[in-house]
């Protein structure tokens, strides 16, 4: 499913014997044409086209990046495979917590074995983990079978790097410290025909003291509103009905523009795009959530009644050490304001347990916020020490057993509240966007409600991509069984 200008570009018209153009994205299309030549050569030799496989770790931003990678590979003529038994395998990595890194190293051993069976196989690694010098060093030293390494800032150069990697059996590694550039109009292969992520900004300036993202994604930069709107219009023309606007802190969107454009202002423009029926966004930092945004959401017919508002900790003392720039009371007031403007809105959150120096009292403050706010769902994380971040230098790291105990108590509370809240909607009729045929039971389809909850209902492939009314018959804690209805 190619979209945007890649539909209109004919790679065969590009002269790959000429010098590559300097300007972007023309330069990348030149290299896509080169890659296409490599694919044709492969096909002549092997009697089939090469397969590729992408695996994404981490957040929605990484998922969107993987769609861009897939878009380029498909335009070059590769065919998507559903496992690592492929000719080109790329892992788009995350490094937000230690276990994200460990998973990648674990999988690399498996890839090495596959490569021994298929020596022509090419392996690539990209994404946030590659922005860490120590990781790249380790790969260069002990994982020589990896063919291509690049980072988050030069992902737009993927076609060029791929062409380079095909020309050598050795390792091509290109990781940039930073970049102010945003390259528009590269191809994208969407995972779903009916919904899509849309990047509105890249990077993060907040430097929460535990978090590695600002170091691996660089400084905040917003995409021009006109580029975002053109993309959303194009998506709508392609049949997309739900967009998710993506950024590490969408509430600070557009601050660098002159005149400034607010996130709320952008939402109002996106709302006007015909064909788009649902708008979501990720992630909102509580410190920058404006009254204008609340008002815009409340008045909107398309913005989903769901706000993901990461709390991280309920202790004002810990929030200060985390550099979050709000305290417990401000967070509680904010949620109250949001709920007053939009009764029934689902509020979800992220919580970290065991930040350095967290005492039992601090933890109880977190539990207190959880009980007061009654989140519809919450992602709970054990604090993970990320080298290079200020928190990693802090003394008084909390012992593992203590963290584990707090984590278990928090999870229990969060789950019990979420289940009670979910139960309350049983019997109601909700709009559901059907996303897929159920994996386990082919007589069912699975979709998402406005508030992001999952619903299973009787149906076939024909319902996929449609917004339907569903009566929620039964709540199973985190998901529902429902029946399609006209009402
Ligand atoms: N930009 C988003 C969060 C992106 S990271 C925001 O500010 O809300 C997603 C979540 O991972 C964070 O909300 C946080 O809860 C968690 N996280 C980030 N760094 C972490 C660390 N070092 N240890 C444990 N969890 C972490
Ligand atoms: Fe990390 Fe904080 Fe930026 Fe979110 S806002 S990405 S938690 S530094
Ligand atoms: Fe992970 Fe990078 Fe996202 S570190 S959470 S993939 S921005």
Structural notes for this entry:
The protein is an alpha/beta fold. 36% of the residues lie in helices and 20% in strands. It has 14 helices and 19 strands. The strands form five sheets. A six-stranded parallel β-sheet has the order 2-1-3-4-5-6, with helices on both faces. A five-stranded mixed beta barrel has the order 15-16-17-19-18. Strands 7-10-11 form a three-stranded parallel β-sheet, with helices on both faces. Helix 2 links the parallel strand 1 (51-56) and strand 2 (79-80). Helix 12 packs parallel to helix 14. The mean pLDDT is 95. The site of iron/sulfur cluster (SF4) has 10 residues, from helix 6.
Bound molecules: S-adenosyl-L-homocysteine, iron/sulfur cluster, FE3-S4 cluster
| Number of contiguous helices | 14
Rounded mean pLDDT is 95
Radius of gyration: 23 Å
The residue ranges in which pLDDT falls below 50 over 5 or more consecutive positions are: none
Number of strands: 19
> How far apart are the first and last residues' alpha carbons, in Å?
34 Å
């Amino acid at each position: 499913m190619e979209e945007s200008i890649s539909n209109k570009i004919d790679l065969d018209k590009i002269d790959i014997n000429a010098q590559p153009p300097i300007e972007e994205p023309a330069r990348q299309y030149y290299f896509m044409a080169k890659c296409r030549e490599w694919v044709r050569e492969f096909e002549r030799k092997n009697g089939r086209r090469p397969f590729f496989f992408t695996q994404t770790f981490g957040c929605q931003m990484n998922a969107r990046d993987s769609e861009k990678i897939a878009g380029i590979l498909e335009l070059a003529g590769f065919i998507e495979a559903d496992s690592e038994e492929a000719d080109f395998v790329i892992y788009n990595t995350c490094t937000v917590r230690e276990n994200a890194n460990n998973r990648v190293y674990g999988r690399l051993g498996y890839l090495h074995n596959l490569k021994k069976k298929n020596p022509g196989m090419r392996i690539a690694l990209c994404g946030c983990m590659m922005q860490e010098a120590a990781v790249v060093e380790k790969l260069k030293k002990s994982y020589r079978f990896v063919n291509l390494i690049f980072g988050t800032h030069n992902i737009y150069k993927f076609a060029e790097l791929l062409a380079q990697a095909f020309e050598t059996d050795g390792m091509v590694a290109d990781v940039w410290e930073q970049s102010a550039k945003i390259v528009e109009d590269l191809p994208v292969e969407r995972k779903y025909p009916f919904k899509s992520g849309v990047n509105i900004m890249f990077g993060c300036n907040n430097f929460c003291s535990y978090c590695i993202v600002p170091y691996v994604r660089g400084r905040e930069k917003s995409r021009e509103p006109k580029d975002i709107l053109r993309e959303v219009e194009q998506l709508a023309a392609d049949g997309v009905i739900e967009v998710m606007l993506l950024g590490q802190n969408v509430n600070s969107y557009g601050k660098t523009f002159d005149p400034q454009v607010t996130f709320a202002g952008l939402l109002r423009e996106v709302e006007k795009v015909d064909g788009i029926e649902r708008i979501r966004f990720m992630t909102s930092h509580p410190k920058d959530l404006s009254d204008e945004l609340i008002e815009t959401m409340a008045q909107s017919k398309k913005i989903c009644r769901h706000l993901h508002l990461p709390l991280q900790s309920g202790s004002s003392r810990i929030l200060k050490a985390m550099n979050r720039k709000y305290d417990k009371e401000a967070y509680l007031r904010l949620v109250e304001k949001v709920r007053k403007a939009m009764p029934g809105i689902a509020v979800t959150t992220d919580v970290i347990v065991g930040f350095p120096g967290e005492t039992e009292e601090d933890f109880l403050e977190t539990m207190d916020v959880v009980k007061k706010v009654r989140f519809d769902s919450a992602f709970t994380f054990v604090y993970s020490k990320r080298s290079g971040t200020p928190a990693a230098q802090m003394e008084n790291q909390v012992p593992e057993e203590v963290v584990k105990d707090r984590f278990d108590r928090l999870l229990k509370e969060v789950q019990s509240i979420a289940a009670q809240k979910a139960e309350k909607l049983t019997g109601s009729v909700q709009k559901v966007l059907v996303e897929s045929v159920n994996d386990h039971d082919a007589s069912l389809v699975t979709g998402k409600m406005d508030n992001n909850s999952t619903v299973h209902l009787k149906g076939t492939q024909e319902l996929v991509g449609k917004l339907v009314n569903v009566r929620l018959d039964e709540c199973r804690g985190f998901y529902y069984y429902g029946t399609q209805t006209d009402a």
